[in-house]
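worker-3 :: picked Short chain dehydrogenase
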Amino acid sequence: MAYRGKLAIVAGGLGGLGSATAKLLHSSGASLALLYAPFEASRRDPQLEAAFGKPTPDTVRTYEADITNEESVKAAFAAITKDLSLQSPPVFPSILINAAGYVSVQPLVDTSAEEAAKNILPNLLGPFIVSNAFFNLYTSTAAPPGGEKPPGRVVSISSQAAHVALPNHGAYCASKAGLLGLVRSQALEWGPHGITSNSVSPTVAMTELGRKAWADETKRNEMLAQIPVGRFAEPDEIAEAMEWLCRDANGMLNGADIRIDGGKSS
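worker-3 :: tokens ->
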């Protein structure tokens, strides 16, 4: 299987696009380390059971972490490092998926600094902190006995909002555009260390939250009218693109962003 012997760390792996990507990587042999926010603790086991069929799936571990807090992330990665040292057969931490995020909707003039920070911290600072922790883990982990390190892969979920302005999404647009700048910087600095960094920019995806957010028929139809293919994305479509970016064979893709928006931002 393509990812046997590899560990995929997924920030935001208990639901939505992060869960869809984690499931796909796991089905192809990857071991998983799922980072979840403290407020998700009560939902952890039900979410795992919904995704994997049981609350304690094989080769899947979970770690509580506030991705906007550097010390919290360091503690989670210390726990991951300890678990890796005890794992047999060994697995190598070669993949990071940045899938956690937040969006709020209101006109810019009505957006307080506090509300803007709720978007910017998890959507931009979180990937910054978690990715740095992943870089340190990847570069400090010895190659498997008798072999070489597998390629490192960082894949982050941006948004169509990084490319086109969306009404009442000012703070979210800014945070996701900033994430693309971070991805390009990682690609430049980390490529020489064997790590590529890329992103995907979806339109509305029909996750559980997506269905709730776009339940209003008038609002939904207005957005659909702007998408040339006439529909929203399915989570599996996003997961397939993210998994593709994780493959060993795609080492020349670095600093790229794949728009999965049905042509909306063309």
